[in-house]
Amino acid sequence: MSTRRQARERVMQALYAFELSGSDAQEIIRTVLKRELDPAAHAFATSLFLQTIDSNAETTEIIKQHTRNWELRRIALIDRILMRIAITELLGFPDIPPKVTINECIEVAKEYSTAQSGKFINGILDAILGDLTKAGKISKTGRGLVEITASNPVRQKVSVDEAE
What we know:
- By secondary structure, the protein is an all-alpha fold.
- It has a single domain (about 5-164), classed as Orthogonal Bundle (N-utilizing Substance Protein B Homolog, Chain A), CATH 1.10.940.10.
- The chain contains eight helices and no strands.
- The protein has helices at about 5-20, 25-35, 40-55, 55-65, 75-90, 100-110, 115-135, 160-164.
């Protein structure tokens, strides 16, 4: 398992704890995120956790727009959290390829959520990626990446191992 995968799992667990407990974000960072993560993974997890909290209203609205036939409260909490994490990564982490973000989210969902969660999340996130790309909100550049913008919506298939 990749170190970033472990970090994403901890972020999902931290957001779940944050949502249910109402604890302070710093307390969650100390108690949930720090466990079994090396310093680089901890830094990534902390950044992703805090950015996901900060972008909650925006990411929730994006999910609502793409799940019109579903009441948000009927979507499994883990699935909502994972989609919020993925959207935050898509918008706020320009060095991570979109397909890596989506694939990692699907793999974590398979481990922690329902049997159908991977397919459901994949469909929603793929539609979100397309819309964000068309709106010019996605700009991915870096080593091994094709720039992805509204004018160049090329989706590059990248394995998870290549992004780490």
